[in-house]
Design goal:
77 residues; alpha+beta
Length: 77
């Protein structure tokens, strides 16, 4: 029996990364027509970004911009 790797993270038929549905219908334009959202409440709290943490990342990004040296590709040829 072929195994179908599933990329939907919240599908009710998802079983260790593979589809466990008895029959799968795929549409080339919209994707899997067998997909059914999991009835369990998915916890999205883990994806919430703390504002202070976001500001720290932005500060690090701004500091790091000065550290990069510009490369001169004309000297190589």
């Amino acid at each position: 029996m072929p195994r179908i790797k599933c990329h939907y993270l919240d599908c009710a038929f998802l079983d260790e990364g593979f589809c466990s549905a008895g029959m799968v219908e795929l549409d080339p334009d919209i994707g899997c027509k067998t997909y059914t959202a999991n009835s369990e409440d998915t916890n999205t709290d883990d994806w919430d970004v703390d504002e202070e943490e976001l500001e720290e990342w932005e500060e690090l990004d701004e500091e790091g911009e000065d550290e990069w040296e510009e490369l001169d590709y004309d000297d190589e040829n």
